[in-house]
């Protein structure tokens, strides 16, 4: 009977998650749900601002809107599954649903790596070659750049997901993770995964190594150019245009390097504690980083803060005009004062 079960193909996976720590599940459910709502609100508002405010119709904010949309897609592909695993005693996911979730998560992660590199190039041109910026970063240039980021991430995800899900899974179907993370799934295969390992290595070089190197070189030129600016005020303004992007890059890649680069513990007791810490770090990478992106860009960017104030004030005046039947309610920008009633208008005396 056991041999029959072992040779049967797997039709579903069991997500282990925090099953070994049931006391943490309810606490993390509330915490992750709150963070997810903040992600939807923060990134949604950022997308709305970049679309509605004409002053933000520039390449930098176009890429920022793409990044916000990407963060919403990335978290939506995994957070609902994580929240469900905190509430259900048996945390199962069908084989096909696991493949879809794996594809979406990998595609969004790979796309973000390329997109951050594109944003670094945008900042390089803006600071190091400001006179050529309108020509180099024209609409005909930055639209294909963003599209190629999404296409590259999707193609890489299709390749990796198809290679992983074609492997035979013949018994052990327990994924020691919150989601169908590709490395955790590969450990369950009952066949040689050397081709998958080589393919993953090449993909990591393309989507992690090359963008990191490109961003690093870009910021060397950016910092060199900023240091050549004679005035302190000029240096501060120049650095403020790229500080938010640099912060996001450090948080994003720093978490990845810490998560996959630290050594594994060989002690069984230490391995159990490390297993929990690895899961929490991956949770940080998947939830906290997308939550921080709109906060970083909002707090460190005067243009975004000004656009937010304009959007809020415009909504307030529009609502006021609608409630008070303001004659200029169709043009809320011009409706800053309540209409003067006829009784209060002084009558002109006839001579």
Overview of this structure, please?
The protein is mostly helical. It is 72% helix and 3% strand. The chain is built from 12 helices and 3 strands, in the order αβαααβαααβααααα. The chain has helices at residues 2-7, 22-52, 59-76, 79-87, 95-128, 133-136, 139-165, 182-186, 194-227, 232-261, 268-299, 302-323; strands at residues 12-15, 92-94, 174-175. The protein has a 3-stranded mixed β-sheet. Helix 5 (95-128) packs antiparallel against helix 7 (139-165). The longest helix has 34 residues, at 95-128. 30% of the residues are buried. Residues 1-7, 266-271 and 329-351 have low confidence and may be disordered.
Key phrases:
351 residues; mainly alpha; 12 helices; globular; disordered N terminus; disordered C terminus
Give a quick account of the main beta sheet: strands, pairing sense, barrel closure: 3 strands, mixed
Structural class, by secondary structure, is mainly alpha
Percentage of helical residues? over 70%
The dominant shape is globular
- Helix and strand run: HEHHHEHHHEHHHHH
**Average residue-wise pLDDT:** 80
Strand order of the largest sheet: 2-1-3
Q: In what range is the share of β-strand residues?
A: under 5%
Unreliable stretches: 1-7, 266-271, 329-351
